[in-house]
Amino acid sequence: MDFLDEIVLTGLTVFGHHGVYPHERENGQEFTVDLRLRLSLEQAAASDDVTDTVDYGELAQRVAAVVAGEPVNLIETLAERIADVALGDRRVQQVTVTVHKPQAPIALTFGDVAVTVHRTRAPESLEDITT
Q1: Cα angle at 41 between 35 and 45, to 5 degrees?
Q2: What's the pLDDT score for residue 130?
Q3: Whole-prediction pTM value?
Q4: 95: which DSSP letter?
Q5: CA 125, 127, 128: angle at the middle one, nearest 5?
Q6: Which whole number is the average pLDDT over 89-99?
Q7: pLDDT at 122
Q8: From CA 20, how far away is CA 82, in angstroms rounded?
Q9: 75, pLDDT greater than 50
Q10: What is the average per-residue pLDDT within 34-62?
Q11: Tens of pLDDT along 3-37?
């Protein structure tokens, strides 16, 4: 495979209780997630069958469950957990996750705080590396 196609989901906004400070954990706030999945869409395009691609509606539900779920201190950790969810589909070869925290506790005027992680599926065997 010489290239990878993309599925992009942006602006998924979910209420969560993440943060270092107790008031963030107690009161919660909205987080916005952007995802960029890299995978081959050739088979899905040929078959025109949703089972041959990542169902982005189902993916959005799984990501929302992570954001609304168990609190973490850092949005870096949250982004990593979301990347793991996306890479849980074996067709996804790479993922970029951005977690936005627009109500971060910063005592200055700002528009957004975001963390972006890029993850690639690790080859599972030597054969995967050579094929």
Answers
A1: 130
A2: 46
A3: 0.90
A4: E
A5: 70
A6: 97
A7: 83
A8: 19
A9: yes
A10: 96
A11: 799 999 999 999 999 999 999 999 999 999 999 99
Mean pLDDT of the chain: 93
Q: Indicate which residue of 44, 101, 121, 126 is catalytic.
A: 101
Evaluate whether 115 touches 68 at the Cβ level (below 8 Å).
Answer: no
CA R_g for the chain: 17
Residue 52 DSSP symbol:
G
Average of per-residue pLDDT across 31-60:
96
Q: Quick one: how far is CA 32 from the chain centroid? A: 10
Determine whether 128 is an active site residue.
Answer: no
Closest by alpha carbon to 9, among 85, 102, 109? Answer: 85
Residues 59-63: contacts with CB under 8 Å, at least 24 apart: 59/9, 59/35, 59/85, 59/86, 59/89, 60/9, 60/12, 62/88, 63/9, 63/12, 63/14, 63/33, 63/35
Tokens, residue 36: 């960029």
* Nearest by Cα to 104 from 23, 37, 36, 47: 23
